[in-house]
Write a structure and sequence with these properties.
Blueprint lengths: L3 H7 L5 E4 L9 E2 L1 H7 L17 E7 L11 E9 L5 E7 L14 H8 L9 E7 L2 H8 L1 H22 L2 E6 L2 E6 L5 H18 L13 E7 L7 H31 L4 E4 L2 E5 L5 E3 L5
Antiparallel strand pairs: 1-2, 1-5, 3-4, 4-5, 6-8, 6-9, 7-8, 10-11, 11-12
Helix pairs in contact: 4-5, 5-6
Length: about 290
């Protein structure tokens, strides 16, 4: 760092990377602000391929090179330009918070599109589309806070599971979630999370379970690449069709269980007193003054 330009780069208030030239093939040098912001473990500065991008703004997920769906990678915008001496300078803006769902902390639909778009470094292998069973009933009978708690609990389970699978979990909106994996993802993996979420609902939100019936959880549809498609839109379409079939089967099972329960007397003893079975909803305690 002998020239005034080097001193300016090192003391820029924004995180920045500097390449000797576009085709040098060497890793860029980070400035002090970059190291303070991202630390040395992010390894952004070891990616010489970023220097080959054209001048302009680029939104990318930056992390360890060669790591499929690296959980430490962050969504950033690079403002890249070529200097008169041929070296390349990139100002780096951290956008991670803008690509996260504020309720659950999972990444959102925009992050999903970024990770599966043309600039994605990893090919998509499996996609699971899922939503919470009877979520409207949870909101209507137990309140929106209970619904939010259920979404946060599912997001936490999906995030932990996805990390162990080398995958990523996203919230599309409402009670819809997506899990993407570079490899195979099947019913065994999703079934484990399904059971964990059912246990949470039964313990924390008892109004979401029918006495004697299977606890509510979530339904899902799976799609595999390339047999079900290669693009995100194709895989989502296939997974959505299978999700609809899964929900129809689960509703049929639930209805059969409710029908069997309705053959019993309408008023039965519940832990907090007499209760009425409301088909398709939950066990509702009888009001004492009724």
């Amino acid at each position: 760092m002998n020239s005034p330009d080097d001193w300016t780069f090192e003391h820029l208030p924004l995180p920045a990377l500097l390449w000797p030239s576009r085709w040098s093939g060497v890793a860029p040098r980070p400035n002090a602000a970059f190291t303070r912001t991202f630390g040395l473990d992010l390894l952004l500065a070891r990616r010489p391929d970023l220097g080959h991008l054209p001048d302009g703004a680029h939104v990318l997920r930056l992390g360890r090179p060669g790591a499929a769906w690296d959980w430490d990678a962050r969504v950033c915008r690079l403002h890249l330009g070529t200097r008169p001496d041929g070296s390349r300078l990139a100002l780096v803006v951290d956008l991670q918070a803008e690509y996260q769902d504020p309720l659950t902390g999972l990444e959102d639909r925009r992050a999903l599109l970024l990770d599966t778009g043309e600039t994605a470094q990893t090919q998509l292998g499996s996609l699971a589309l899922l939503d919470v069973d009877g979520f409207k009933e949870v909101n209507d009978t137990l309140g929106h806070k209970a619904g939010d708690d259920a979404l946060r609990a599912l997001a936490e389970l999906l995030a932990a599971a996805a990390r162990s699978w080398g995958a990523r979990a996203y919230r599309l909106g409402g009670d819809e979630f997506v899990v993407c994996a570079p490899g195979y993802l099947g019913a065994r993996e999703l079934g484990t999370v399904q059971a964990q979420f059912a246990e949470h609902l039964a313990a924390q939100l008892p109004g979401t379970r029918l006495r004697g019936a299977a606890p509510r959880s979530f339904s899902y549809g799976l799609a595999q690449a390339p047999q079900d498609g290669a693009a995100l839109a194709e895989l989502l379409r296939c997974a959505d069709a299978r999700l609809a079939g899964s929900k129809k089967r689960r509703r049929g099972t639930q209805a059969a269980q409710v029908a069997r329960l309705q053959e019993r007397p309408a008023a039965v003893l519940a832990p907090d007193g007499p209760a009425l079975l409301w088909p398709g909803l939950s066990w509702l305690p009888l009001r004492k003054n009724a």
